[in-house]
Amino acid sequence: MSRGRVDVRTDLEEVFRGNYARVVAVAARVLGSRDQAEDVAQEVFLSFGRSSVPADEAGGWLTVAATHTALNVLRSGRRRSAREEVAGDGPTVAPDVAELVITREERSAVRAALGRLPHKQAAALVLRHSGLSYAEVAAALDMSPGSVGTTVRRAESVLLKELNRHASPE
Question: What is the pTM of this model?
């Protein structure tokens, strides 16, 4: 082996083929962008390739890694958006696409509010709504299974408060 070279896991291709779609779906659910989700998936699989996670635990590990990575992208995107808003006016909206814009704004508001949640609450909410069981969420976030429901409910409550707090008065 040459200096600086990292061996590739022999199970990487199999794990990738079996989990790529789910990793992208979880990241896309958080980010709302397939392109960004695919970037997250690439980063997650690169991390997995360097890890010593057993192949039979890969699915859960990858789902959690996708959630955390997507939440980090969401948070960094929020900071970038704030900088861009200060830099200049946003795009003008044509009246015939108003409904599309409202839907996008609502999704954007939910993602921004999700990005303001404490990381563990946001991760629990995303993982639970991605189809993981309470036990799987608990294992992924190193929590007791009994506290997952409370954490998810609390996250939903905080998310609603964040949405209401940042809602524009009409």
Answer: 0.65
